[in-house]
Every structure is written in structure tokens, then in C-alpha cells.
Amino acid sequence: MKWGTRVTALAAATVVGGLGFAGAAEAIGPPVYTKYDVNGTTHVAKPNADVTLGPGISELFTNIGPYSFYGTVKLPPVTITRAVPGVGTVSGKLTLGLGDVTGQAFGGFTATAKWPVKVSDVTVNGAPYDVGPACGTAEPVTTELTSADWQLDKGGHLTSTYTIGAFANCGSATALVNSAVPGPGNTLALDFTWPAA
Description:
Blueprint: H1 3-18, E1 32-44, E2 49-63, E3 68-74, E4 78-84, E5 88-96, E6 99-104, E7 109-115, E8 117-124, E9 127-128, E10 136-137, E11 141-147, E12 155-164, E13 167-168, H2 174-180, E14 183-193
Antiparallel strand pairs: 1-2, 1-14, 2-3, 3-6, 4-5, 5-8, 6-7, 7-11, 8-9, 10-13, 12-14
């Protein structure tokens, strides 16, 4: 959708909302496409690591009327380095996503994002440690996101507490990765903002 068309659609959505029809069960016209810049942080509990996420992008399609939406979030890989007792310094590249997002933005904001999580470029005490090309969580990580300030034409601050499941397909490093990463109590905070251009 072109910029002008998107802005017109958002303006129409605002008017419809103001007239009290935003809660209608059926969508009013085709989904509105919006693109956001994404930056944030995640705290991975087991290694006690705070990781900066982004810059990334999110592309969402919102059904005006029910204000349900779907889309994706794309974030760049990040590197985590931590000391593992009995092993030494372990470093690896963590790739979160491409995240698939669905949600509702009427009467509050709720979204579910499912992220395939991959680990690569692992080193132990500086030496490469082969984990193969398919090392990742056996199931996608699910984050239940909420926002108190979401606006379709601006974005918002999204937060979640989530669990990282067990990793698989990491070869002889599977036990090492599972001792260092999976577990509950992880937190995620993402800022979606309207692109500058």
C-alpha cells in the first residue's frame, strides 16, 4: 500500500472509531498495512543476560472494524557471551524470528508472537564449537504481548514475560546449550515506532 493510501485509510479508521463503529464484528474494507521500526530489550533469565534487540521492522495488517491484526516482526541476530560453571566462557549468536504476530487492538492491546529461536557461531573459551545449521528450540518461543499505549498510526511499547523451551539439533553441544539458555522468567520489551521515512 502506498504512503498516501495508507494515511487515507488510517484517517478513515480514526473517523470510524470516533463515530462509534470501531467495535463492529466485520472488517470495513481491506486490511490497513502499517510498517514500524522496532527496538527493544530482552532479559534471558538463566544466563542473567540483558540483550539489546534491533533495529528491526514490523509489518502489520489491521482489519478496521474488529481491529484484529496479523503480520511479522524481523529482528537482527544478537550475540550473548556468558561464563558457564565448569565449562568456561561460552559465546553464541541468537536469532529470534522471523516472528509471526496475531492480535487484537480494540478495547486494549493483546498480541501473540511466535519466534523460531536459533543458535549459531558458538565458541567455548574462544574456540569454535560446531552446533550445526539447525540448532534451535524444538518449538517456537511464544510471547504474549500487551501494550498500554498502542495507536495504529504511532505504535507503542509492548511487553511480555515468556519461557524459552529446550533446544534440539545442536549435536554434541545440545546439553551445553540447554544448560545455558532455556527456562522461564524471561522478559521482552519492544518499542514499535512510526518510521521516519
